[in-house]
Amino acid sequence: MTLPEKPIDAQWTDDQWKAIYSEGKDILVAAAAGSGKTAVLVERIIQKIMRNKQDVNRLLVVTFTNASAREMKARVNAAIQKESIKYPEDEHLKSQRIKIHQAQISTLHSFCLTLIKSHYDTIDIDPNFRTANEVESIVLLEQAIDDVLESYYEKNEQTFLAIVEHLSNDRSDEPLRALLNRLYRFSIAHADPFAWLNELAQPYDQIDENHAYFKMFDQLIYRKLDSAKNALYQSIDCYQHLNEVDKHVTYLEGERIWLERVFEGSKLLDQIHLDMAAKKLPTNSAKIKSENEGSEQLLELGKDYHKAYLDHLKELTEGYLSRSREDLIQDMKDMGPRVKVIADITKDVIQYFQSLKQQKRIIDFSDYEHLALDILTDDDGNPSEIALQYRDYFDEILVDEYQDTNRVQEAIISCIKRGEEHNGNLFMVGDVKQSIYKFRQAEPELFIEKYKRFNDQEIASGEVIDLSKNFRSRKEVLDNTNYIFSHMMDEVVGEIEYNDEAKLYYGADYDSQHTPLEMDIIVQDSFKVEDNNLIEAKAIVDKVQYILDNKRVYDRKTQSYRPATFKDIVILERSYSNAMHLQQQFKEVNIPFYVESKKGYFEQNEIRLMLSFLRVIDNPLQDKYLVGVMRSIAFQFKEDELAEIRNKAPQEIYYIDSIYKYISNAEADAALVEKLNQFLTQLKNYQAYSKSVPVWQLLDKLYNDYYLISYFSGLTGGVQRRQNLYGLLNKAIQFEASSLRGIFQFIRFIDELIDRGQDFGQESVIGPNDDVVRMMTIHSSKGLEFPFVIYSGITREFNRTELREHVILNNRYGLALSYFNIEKEVSFPTLASIIFKNINETEMISEEMRLIYVALTRAKEGLYLIGRVKSDKALEKIGLVSADQDEMIESEYRVKAKSPFDLISSVLAKSKDNGLSHSMPFKSERSESFNINIIRDEEQDEEQDISYEKPTLDTLMNYIPSEKKDEIYNQMVYKYPDEQLLNIAAKQSVSEIKRQRETEEAGTDYQIVRQYQLGTKSYDRPKFMTKQKRQSAEIGTLMHAVMQHLPLKQEGLTVEDLQNLVHELMDKEILPDDAMQDLDLSLIEVFTKSDLYKRLVNADKVMREVPFVVGQDDIDQGLSFDVSEKDNKPIIQGMIDCIFIEGDKVSFIDYKTDAFIVRRGKTKEEVAETMKQKYDVQMRYYQNTLETILKKPVEGYLYFFQYGTKHIKENH
């Protein structure tokens, strides 16, 4: 078709004009953020009415929310009225003024409801149906799951019992119930839920070496190998720029050749693990370090990249390649029957849930779509007669926010649209980069598939129109968004290519003022405050004050500036988790602040108490709620009392059983028993009362019995607390008005609300024009715009919980079940689990990228990002990630990113002109403009500047003695009353006591020696000492470090094993890089051949480096001083090298690296005996300490590396 000619003065761009007037085939408008898609959609509808003389009620316009439907209807109506005034005689316009009220401009749910009401007779539904309220829908589904599971428990079939073992925790089958709930939601997002469920077990039955899963598996393996290759090449690159590292380069070059063989296939994947032990980078010796002074970072970086290379290979050998393909196939086949039964249970839940709703004559929102689809299709799944009538009736179907549709909605639209894609009447608008509702089963893939198909010139299909001009934001906002996404979003991770079509193009008319993006990075360790969320909240408030004080807002109509006000600023975060900190901080600086949230209601103490009360009355076998109620204002049990009850009956599984056991204990405290009896009586009374009255009456009785309204009203924020308690009462009254009853159902309803993240909260009292700083989630900000956006909370980690579950679900691929052997209680991932985890992780990161895109594109003028790193060391690692030839950040890094900060900062840091100085910059230049600001605690960085006044002649002449002369004199001659305790250390180490005894036996005052010893001990050798030889004490520390990590193997260890261990410890920075030269590993090898080592290998339990703290008078009977006050009781701390337990027998070892000098006339045994005496004090302390703590005899062993074992017998 030919488009009408665009007038020269038209306000529309060429692409917008095309989107308004194109017709004759299905059209997909890919509208970037701020590109005026709603205006285009409204204009298209108006032109259909005015120019094409079509009736407004013959258009079906589907929107995503009721609010946007109302707004669109109002805009179309206003346009019709305006034209009617211009042409009062126009009959067509007159009729449109009436027909607008019958127009189908609504959400798809509303359209489906209209359809059901008109055609209920064609489906099995009561004409007097009503829509279920949220309470009923939630609780009935839970009831359906309960009843269906109950029937399976009664059948007692083996496969079902295996599933229960597989998917339950040690206390309940709650995880299995949660899975069925999720499976229900996943399945009903498909046009035919049963067909989807029936296909779940197919891959488990059909799996073989040629299955598509193995192709996907191979892709994962090679993606991992690619990452290993990138890391290795980076390591090679670093060492090639260094001196005296020929050994390193030779080794790395060998690794490069080895890796090439793996890629070629001449080195088989299942043999990689055999070569892992030989992969050791030569150490960076002191000589190498001195030869590369000034290039320390490069040296460290080369080592880090090599470690990353090894880590990638280890992940492969210990993960993907840890099981053979035959085993992977067998695992899948073994789990097939369980998957089939899980699908069967879900089908039963769907049918039973439907029957429960039918009994009550109710339908819920998901029924709207499925019932509509039933009306629109016949038994074979083809469009029904009714569907064909709608096809004839609607001239065009217009769908807004098409990226958020699911497969059921797509099926409904397909039934009522005309023609094929190349001659259809479907007009779709959306932006896949803003598809952020995957948690509601939205499928951006539908949009992506159509976009690719419509762009393919080879096939006859629809037409794509890209609207990429942005009329919302300044050029810098768009340039920076383009810069970030062009380096991190592609088809592999991001689901679409961020190419020239996807980019944002500047279309607004701002002035030329420069407004770079600001990224603040807080270094947490520089702050004294420990709460990192609080540090961030303060930084956000500082940023708001900075904007208010320094920024102005540009009015594009008047082309002039006005000062920034509170409502110009929005704080966007992924969730409301930091809202309370922010509220407090804004309150302190008197800035009006509003959170667009109903969160936090269930977190309030008064509500938590009441819910705990209800839970305990319903089921007292819930320890945390029971103890919570007992500790509360209602019963006032103290922590000591609660601990005492548990101590007297520790074997009981449930706390309530411990209470009964305690009451029957003859040694129990009489007053506490009395208190417990009263508590149990009251609990029984409430349980009896709850069976005969509604929940709200029970709540009311609890409020009155314990004066809870009065008590909570008297606390801080009392008015709000009282409202919260009344709110809970009202909710219970509403619950009772539904078709549900009972305390259990009420609690279940509340739990479901909490799980879904829904909350009652307080209703919004703030309008869109109120002058306040707002905080919103990114989801709730979609479609809105603000002059200044502060995007914070970006360091909070992505939620990967579902990826760790036994069952992983995916809309397209189905269900992955882990392997679980019930007899052996062994669980590990199946082939499906490995693949699904990766697919879902990639989809999750893609969705998170789209959320970042939505957040950045809300800003009109200024973008401010606030992130955090732990320390300067973490800061130095930003921007070191590698990128491919297209300068796309490595895909493995993006998939494994922990937070939005990881993704954004790695791209910003690599900017050639604006990035961090230590990063590896991109070579190409783009038009990004931003500043990275490192934020440290100023108070700690600034030295206090104290200036003293110098005395002048005048001040000396006029000197008057102070009136406080006597007071000062008394302070000068003050004597401490407990002077005798001054030289007694409040805390001493065992080694120090040993030295003290030795010194005193030699006739010297230990306090004199002690003064010279204080402050001299240090574990880190200062730089100027690193070239000097280590002293014996330092070598001892190295030997102890090796012993702490020594593997215990039946066959003992060779010197080669020990060398490998030392290399590992050096890689982990537990040992310094030059440790090998000072360690005599043959001495440790001798130890591994000793009887003592064999006993360690066979021991029931071995603990190493065990610290302890005890009161000195508990273990040392020979104290030479008297300390009467308990507060001043001296304590001893120490560290026992090794403790091992054989049955009831406890022994400890102390390793000694002392040199053995055998003088003439002495035997080695005599020298060993003397050495044993030298350590007698220390060993006795260790022995007394362990015997005091364990209340049983303990044996000790001194192990001298130069001699062998000396035995310290039990005390008798």
Task: Write a compact overview of the structure shown.
The protein is 49% helix and 12% strand. With 1212 residues, it is α/β, with parallel strands linked by helices.
List the helices and strands and how they pair.
Layout: H1 14-21, E1 27-31, H2 37-50, E2 59-63, H3 66-86, H4 91-99, E3 104-107, H5 108-119, E4 130-131, H6 134-155, H7 158-167, H8 174-187, H9 193-198, H10 202-206, H11 212-239, H12 246-264, H13 272-275, H14 286-291, H15 296-320, H16 325-359, E5 362-363, H17 365-376, H18 385-393, E6 396-399, H19 407-416, E7 426-430, H20 444-455, E8 463-467, E9 469-470, H21 475-486, E10 505-506, E11 517-523, H22 532-550, E12 552-555, E13 560-563, E14 569-573, H23 579-588, E15 593-595, H24 605-618, H25 623-631, H26 639-648, H27 655-663, H28 670-690, H29 695-705, H30 708-713, H31 718-737, H32 743-755, E16 773-777, H33 778-781, E17 786-791, E18 807-810, E19 814-817, E20 819-821, E21 826-828, H34 831-856, E22 859-869, H35 872-877, H36 891-895, H37 900-909, E23 930-935, H38 938-941, H39 953-957, H40 965-972, E24 987-989, H41 990-1001, H42 1006-1013, H43 1032-1044, H44 1055-1067, H45 1081-1087, H46 1091-1098, E25 1101-1111, H47 1112-1115, E26 1131-1142, E27 1145-1152, H48 1164-1174, H49 1176-1190, E28 1194-1200, E29 1204-1208
Parallel strand pairs: 1-7, 1-8, 2-3, 2-6, 4-5, 6-7, 9-10, 11-22, 11-23, 14-16, 14-17, 15-16, 17-22, 24-26, 27-28
Antiparallel strand pairs: 12-13, 18-19, 20-21, 25-26, 26-27, 28-29
